[in-house]
Amino acid sequence: EAPVVSEIASDENCTKITIVGVKDKPGIAGTIFSHLADKGINVDMIVQGASLDEKTNNISFTVTRDDMNESVNVLKGLLPKLSATEVIHDDNVAKVSMVGVGMRSHPGVAAKMFSLLGERNINIHMISTSEIKISCIVEKGKAVEAVRILHSGFGLE
Amino acid sequence: EAPVVSEIASDENCTKITIVGVKDKPGIAGTIFSHLADKGINVDMIVQGASLDEKTNNISFTVTRDDMNESVNVLKGLLPKLSATEVIHDDNVAKVSMVGVGMRSHPGVAAKMFSLLGERNINIHMISTSEIKISCIVEKGKAVEAVRILHSGFGLE
Ligand SMILES: C[C@@H](O)[C@H](N)C(=O)O
Ligand SMILES: C[C@@H](O)[C@H](N)C(=O)O
Fold it and tell me: How far is A129 from chain B (nearest CA, A)?
């Protein structure tokens, strides 16, 4: 089927948080997100790439602005238990998402989204994809422009 | 709405690839995935966490077994252009996914998935989430057990 991008939107009520240097062993992710869940914190995107050394890894995620400080405090409290290095956070971000069908079987769709943003000098901080949704975290001030150029590039004006 | 996990499945035709130390500047992700798309390579998950230093980043993604070698070669060819360090890859992996509704607004769902896997000593290599799907990359040999314990833990026997 031809890939159909049906919706492009941004969400500026978004902050990104990364816990750095956690042990890459079973149970760590469960511990982190259970502690956040216990505080009633809704986590939106969770993104973890592959460990480079199979010893440590970093886990990035996003929460609303209201939950950023509490999330950071929860993670800082866990640093010793996780043997992790630090927690970094940034509230100057927004999520830009493209929703569609058939996107996985069309390798060019994600490439085109990333290229359109790159051509306008919009840096992509985080990426998460599924068959029906591609989400990028960008600088908050660029979210409106990002949606506009993606609408234009994908013919959704 | 109560979170409803409707489906839990694994995909063993999965290999993970990471390009390490790419420049964290606009256009890099577009370049990488355009080159892969030009070869007709279907990329499944793309996962990029936040850069730690705003200078470099790593990008992980998955492709089928048939596409792993070509993907690695494409990336190796791009290393100079991207000022990247290396390409790492692992074919001893599988994707385990939970599909549901209302998962984003229920912070405990991802935490429970990660904890169930952790309790059985199943290490999580990569994580990618959306409102309706949580995907984890684990060791291939653990995929069947992972699906079984998640079915049991979420009451989907
Ligand atoms: C690392 C890569 O995602 C880069 N930040 C880009 O925007 O293309
Ligand atoms: C880093 C973290 O994801 C760890 N590998 C775990 O399985 O919990």
Answer: 5
Cβ within 8 Å, pair A36-B120:
no
Q: Phi and psi for A93 in degrees, rounded to 5?
A: -135, 165
Tokens 């509704």 — which residue? Answer: B101
pLDDT beyond 60 at A106: yes
CA distance A49 to B58: 8
How much distance in Å is there from the Cα of B25 to the middle of ligand 1? 5
Hunting for tokens 């990247």 — which residue is that? B84
Are A72 and A60 in contact, with CB atoms under 8 Å apart? no
Q: pLDDT of A122-154, one tens digit each?
A: 999 999 998 889 999 999 999 999 999 999 999
pLDDT at B1: 57
**pLDDT at B73 > cutoff 90:** yes
Cβ separation B118–A27 shorter than 8 A: yes
